[in-house]
Amino acid sequence: MVRRSLNDLLTIDLHADALARQQWRDFGNGLSMSRLAREGQRELVLYRIAADASPDAFVKHEHIGGELYLVLRGTIIDETGEYEKGDIVFLDPHSVHTLRAIGETIVLVFWPAGVRLVD
To answer: Structure pTM?
Structure first.
């Protein structure tokens, strides 16, 4: 796992109107996903997690080719740590984790080789 805060390099300013225009898939538990791009198993998505999202909104999963994500708003917590707005994180191939969010959270995620749910 590699982590770096980008807060000393950039300012993240999300545009509410642009976010509202995205096509969101609502999972019904406070978690929504908007697919930005997909080619084969590679995928770029936005996750929006409501402040009152179910603690188990995310299920345990494995990232076949790893995962790269940038926290755009809020805070994400998993087994490896706590990540805040401006943090960019890379999880190694075959890494397994379960996420939860603190407050309203938006995360930009890239999967180079897809995701597999873990029992």
So the answer is: 0.94
